[in-house]
């Protein structure tokens, strides 16, 4: 691990919540059962291809839970987790920030393209995710 600091189980769950939450936001922007199946495969392929600290965080431990409630509450929770995940990586594994950003954006893009291409609502979700990842939210 970079800098000799390993991530705690809670920190790994935060990274996972941010990444899975981002994928959920894009998927939920254009819901549908067939779309959900295709999008799940698209996201899992990207996550499986991750490496190092990012792969360990995204493929180990429990599944994340987003709050139940309005779409706005879910979005705030997902984007908040994404922001906290970046802070964790900047502190404990700065060399992994770009990898995490890439995995999240690639997964979000592949989810959007998995069923009939990127629609406007999906693009809005991707833009919000990118704003957090770029630090411009």
General description of the model:
With about 140 residues, the protein is an all-alpha fold. The protein has one domain. It contains six helices and no strands. It has helices spanning about 10-30, 35-50, 50-60, 70-90, 95-115, 120-135. Helix 1 crosses helix 4, helix 2 (about 35-50) runs antiparallel to helix 5 (about 95-115) and helix 4 (about 70-90) runs parallel beside helix 6. The mean pLDDT is about 90.
What is shown here, in short?
The chain is mostly helical. It contains 6 helices and no strands.
Topology:
Elements: H1 9-29, H2 33-48, H3 52-59, H4 71-92, H5 97-113, H6 120-134
**Helical amount among residues, as a percent range?**
over 70%
Query: Which percent range describes the beta-strand content?
Result: under 5%
Count of separate structural domains = 1
Mean pLDDT: 89
What letter string, H or E per element, gives the SSE order?
HHHHHH
- DSSP strand tally: 0
